[in-house]
Amino acid sequence: MSQTKLLVALTATLLATTANAGAAEFFNRISSFPVALNNPDAEETSAEIITVSEDGMTMIYSDSPAGGIGFIDITDPKAPAAKGFLSLNGEPTTVVVIGDKVFSGVNTSESFTAPSGNLSTIDLASQTIEASCDIGGQPDSVARNGDGSLIAIAIENERDEDVNDGEIPQMPAGSLALLNVVDGVVDCDSLKIVDMTGLAEVAGDDPEPEYVSINSLNEVVVSLQENNHFAIVDGNTGEVKNHFSAGAVDLVNIDTLDNGSLDFTGSQDGVLREPDSVKWIDDDRFAVANEGDYNGGSRSFSIFSKTGEVLHESGADLEMIAAQMGHYPDKRSDAKGAEPEGMDVATFGENTYIFVGLERASLVGVYKDTGAEPEFVQALPSGVGPEGAVAIPSRNLFITANENDLGADGLARSHVNIFELAEAEAPTYPHIISDLDADGRPLGWVALSGLVADAEKPGMLFGVSDSFLGNQPSIYTIDATSQPARITAKTVVTRNGHPAQKLDIEGIALDGEGGFWLASEGRSDRLIPHALYRVGADGAIEEEVPFPAELLAEEIRFGAEGVTVVGTGDDTTLWIAMQREWKNDAKGVVKLVSYNPASGEWGAVNYPLEAPAEGAWVGLSEITAHGDLVYIVERDNQIGSKAVLKALYSVPVAELVPGALGGELTTVTKTLVRDFVPDLTSTGGYVLDKVEGFAIDASGEGFAVTDNDGVDDSSGETMFWSIGAL
Fold it and tell me: I need a labelling partner for 70 at 20 to 30 A (CA). Which of 26, 253, 650, 657 fits?
């Protein structure tokens, strides 16, 4: 199937509706769990590799930064609970369960040149270390066989990326370790070290095994990521039965430049797959996530036969899906793109699913195995940086573990996300996707920062992107009557025929003549002006209106976050919501700034902010006029359990009587219209930071959207929803 035809098919799948999906099954998120709850005193926590007890009631994850493993009670998967944390004497790299024991690979290396490690046995009930086997090197992945009698460990002995620019060989070489398990007890004396040197064409004398998986024949497939190679090993004898190169991929229609623009016209030839996670689908086929390392990364997942035949190659499909869903990480365009890394394969009922985690796009692609070309089912929002994944078919559950902890920067902590497979009319995510352009490529988008509604057509909206796409500032046409909502067109804002530079568009309003007013949040330290821009329907800037000197004299970084229009003709006034207090504002008071295009006059009123919680700030992020009221989005800058304020307020238009800038200003009164926090938790995730867009359509229906920060230190998740009639 050609890529264009495939993208059309994927778009149709993403646009599943009640009409065609009434009896379908989808995975939908039912809860999330911040793993810091298990270890609240740790400065940094992580959920990297995750597994589950044999009864499916307890999740266990490795936490490398905190030096231990955590336990989560999922007896009620909709309300996961902290169940404890166990510190280990080293860095845990992975976990598996056999019976009532947890087995963790622990890295105890003194240096890259003196690697060491062990396999620790932990009692699940008491959460105590019972035994430890020296495995002779630094472990990475650990896998068990079906009956729990065999454990395979990838001994990576990873390289030092600061030596020789990270190139291999760097000794000592890695290997594969095999251990027998008898009655739930590891027999340390049974340790077999399988030599993997001399197999790969790439640095064959320095194999670095990355991931292992065992099929029902006790055959171990080993990915050697840096060596771009696979080995098939007899787990009973340690014999290397087969080995072959992971090969290379020619990629087309990809974005290859980190330049603040989404342009899917690039290509790369001969990209080494350099696979990370590997999972058997059956006894003859295995799936791999081609993350890449130093020299490669084909942005894809593949299916191989154990004889070395490539049975399926996804190419750039996952990246195209990410782009349509607003999850494409442009800052990784010049590297490995969406970067598939984690993976699981599991059978639910009659269907076998392949789950592919996209580390940089923070999505999990879900495919149904057909025996031939897999069928795309959906993509799941997974939190920041999905690393581990585990399915629990007996409970219809699928779990992702996200290794990134950004709490030190006031961002999202590491989370575990729980999804349930159930009959549904449609998946709950995505909330909004883009169509394809005339050439069959995605209308890529990220960071929706403002909304306005068409004056006449119900359900027709326009959104804008902020400074993340600095070389492609855009106005998006949105069909909100579709499920999910659809971005049907993308209009680039231009100056003199070229994409306009130095814009940070945070607000959009209709100009009454077929075009728009745009509000740009300035930053003088980056030479981005605080200004209003009037653009035509084609996106061309027709008028630039800089903020007046008396306003800029009080500048602080946080400027215009929304713009709306009140009145008509010569009485037309633009009202601009300033995000936070500037120098001459009293604490807890922010300006609504006015501009009359006919007279050129500026003015303002004061708006009272809610008091922030300790360590937080509160500001405005949108303004929308409708009838006799102006609606304002007010929010704090907090994420997850720390988030308190994400809300919609109304202000009477009659109170918008501007005073002179620098003079005494009246203070408007406000009324709470809607608390957005319940909306933001309605799909089982943690509370997102930035509700930045709100519009009321021609029928009076209100719509809100979050800004995903361009998938930069963000989950990439965009929530778009209706709050009904106002």
Answer: 26
Are 355 and 344 spatial neighbours (Cβ–Cβ below 8 Å)? yes
Residues 222/209, Cβ–Cβ less than 8 Å: yes
Per-residue pLDDT, 310: 98
- Measured CA distances, 562 to 242, 509, 576, 584, 695 (Å): 61, 9, 6, 20, 11
Within 8 A by CB and 6+ apart from 35, the residues are: 45, 46, 47, 61, 63, 70, 72, 413, 414, 415, 416
| pLDDT the model gives residue 7 | 55
CB 188 within 8 A of CB 181: no
State CA 14 to chain mean position distance.
17
- Binned at pLDDT 50, 70 and 90, residue 557 comes out as confident
- Asked if pLDDT for residue 476 goes beyond 80, the answer is yes
Three-state secondary structure call for residue 329: coil
Mean pLDDT of the chain: 95
CA distances to 448, 573, 607, 610, 619 from 655, in Å: 29, 14, 11, 19, 20
Taking residues 675-691, what's their average pLDDT? 97
Q: Which residues contact 114 (CB under 8 A, 6 or more apart)?
A: none
Residues 447 and 468: their CA atoms lie apart, in Å, by: 7
pLDDT tens for 57-88 read 999 999 999 999 999 999 999 999 999 999 99
Name residue 343's beta-bridge partners. 356
What 3-state DSSP class applies to 210?
strand
Q: At what angle do helices 3-14 and 317-324 cross, to 10 degrees?
A: 40
Residue 312 has which token pair? 């399926």
Residues 129-149 have a mean pLDDT of 97
Band of the pLDDT at 525, cuts 50, 70, 90?
confident
Q: How confident is the model at residue 526 (pLDDT cuts 50, 70, 90)?
A: confident
Whether 232 contacts 199, CB under 8 Å: no
For residues 650 and 647, what is the distance between their CA atoms, to the nearest angstrom?
A: 10
For 505-617, strand residue ranges (E) read: 505-510, 516-520, 531-535, 541-546, 560-566, 573-578, 589-595, 602-608
How far from 708 is each of 65, 256, 445, 539, 695, CA to CA, in Å?
26, 21, 10, 23, 18
Q: CA 725 to CA 685: how far, in whole Å? A: 25
